[in-house]
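Researcher: We're teaching a course module on how sequence relates to structure. For the next exercise, students receive a sequence and then see the predicted structure as tokens, so they can try to spot secondary structure elements on their own. Here is the exercise chain.
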Amino acid sequence: MSVRVRLTEAPFDPWAEVAEAERARGAARAAHGAAAVFVGAMRDRNEGVAVESMFLEHYPGMTEREMARAAEAALVRWGAAEAVVVHRVGEVRPGEALVLVAVWSGHRAQAFEACREIMEAVKHRVPLWKRERRADGERWVERNTPGRMDPAGA
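Model: And here is the predicted structure for the students to work with:
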């Protein structure tokens, strides 16, 4: 089992991160043929209001530890092998990558479920606080969007 987590204030290319992880996997590529990748980018609207930027605060050390714990727990629960989690902190602009979760496993179901579980933990349990800058001022984001939506209402 392998978990890599990273917080960054700089914009990042999620697909370059996945490609680098693939190169680093070496011999494990033959054993773990399934990968699931989630990339989240900052939206330019939230709750119907235009958002100019967002500032993400975190608790250094604790945030990374909680991300790693969540990833490790998901890998164990789903029998997956590897995970990479990258998350922005500091100022983020609309359209920029905000989060990457990538999981490798022997089978697709393991990869999909572990990826989802890690992403939900990052959104709901990991200590990250979001402050939006909008035309009408700044505000703290009080809640995250739900992880599962009703397909009929989506």
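Model: If you want an answer key for the exercise: The two ends are 35 Å apart (CA to CA). The longest strand covers residues 49-58.
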